[in-house]
Amino acid sequence: MTVKSPARIEAERLCKRFPAVPTMTLAKKLAKSHKKTIETARSLLRIIRGNTGDKARRQTTGKDSYRPPQPAGFTPEMPKSLAEPWLPFDLGNGHRTVILSDIHLPYHSPIALQATVKYFKKLKPDNVLINGDLMDWYGLSRYQKDPSKVDFNAEIDSGSEFLAWMRSVFPNCRIIYKFGNHDERWKIWVFNNAPLLEKLPKKMRIIAYECLVGLMEHVLECKNHGIETVKDQRPVMLGHLPVLHGHESGKAGLTSSVNAARGLFLKTLSTMLASHGHRTSQHSETDWRHKQTSTWSTGCLCELNPPYWRMGNRWNWGAAFVDVDSVGGFNVENFRIGPNGEIWK
Ligand SMILES: [Fe+2]
Ligand SMILES: [Fe+2]
Q1: How far is the CA of 193 from the centre of ligand 2 (A)?
Q2: Which ligand is nearest to the CA of 279?
Q3: Ordered domains of the chain (ranges, CATH)
């Protein structure tokens, strides 16, 4: 058995670890770490890479360390990026879109929801956008839970029944369900509770995670009801207006500096509409060229005094609709809903 010198072991490691890096670059590193001349180190590396003639090439072809000879001055390529494209969900121009959000099924407010849907029906919309927190997923919360309230089946039934109801009320509309932070609880729960999947080979692991995460849409029967879903925190574009769920607006989510709309402006410095704040507000700023930037926060459609925040949350019921013209210009109507279902514009 031939015993390899430390320099040879290091040279083989360098060739495997940096296959695209020029031999001279590796030779300088090897010469420094093993007190060799650069030429000696380079010769060693060329032998390992099979660059010293046909015989050496034949002996090294097929091995990890083989590298075809490169022309002088060759520079390696930039490493491949694993980043995936992240694009908005674009609903285009020339439509009326109604927006309802923060329903938190099965802890919704029947009064607020009935009033909203009745009003929306009169508006004859093209699209219905459920802008996050359709589900509460109380049972999947990371916060301390009241065991008597955890009823996973009831949550699933409530979600599926709601989507069936939406489809029957708006039979010809495009219905889009954008995920909010509560809807994302399902995915987070899967990631936290399926550590064994990490041991699967990569391809199987991806499929397994996709199946488990996609199970939520399956149990809610989104496909059966013809409901499109928007995940991965992608904004929905209504013409030139981006619409998002507030937890996506920055690192700490939506803050309420004076009000939620101003908080949204301070986070994004651009025109947009967000849910999640559970409070109706609007904020506008004008710059020195008199260009206007406006932000809107929509109200919620859930119970206003949940057990974890009985008093002082200052939430209100509300929803919105947006008219988009043929070139992407838009008009937002952000309204509140009174205690008896009155629509307050
Ligand atoms: Fe919410
Ligand atoms: Fe939210």
Answers
A1: 22
A2: 1
A3: 1-81 (no CATH), 89-344 (3.60.21.10)
- Residues lying with their CB under 5 A of ligand 2, a single-atom ion: 133, 180-181, 276
Single-letter code of the amino acid located at 245 = H
**Number of the ligand closest to the Cα of 254:** 2
Strand ranges inside 215-316, DSSP E? 227-230, 236-238, 241-245, 272-278, 281-286, 292-299
Give yes or no for residue 217 having a pLDDT over 80: yes
pTM (2 d.p.) = 0.83
Cα separation of 118 and 301, whole Å?
14
Rounded distance from Cα 182 to ligand 2 centre (Å): 6
- CA–CA distance, 284 with 50 (Å, rounded to integer): 67
pLDDT more than 90, % of the chain: 65
Enumerate long-range contacts of 27-35, CB under 8 Å, 24 or more apart. 34/6, 34/7, 34/10
d(CA 104, ligand 1 centre) in Å:
7
Integer CA distances (angstroms), 189 to 57, 183, 195, in order: 53, 11, 11
Give tens-digit pLDDT for 32-46: 998 889 999 999 999
**Distance between Cα 286 and ligand 1 center (Å):** 29
Ligand index nearest the alpha carbon of residue 108: 1
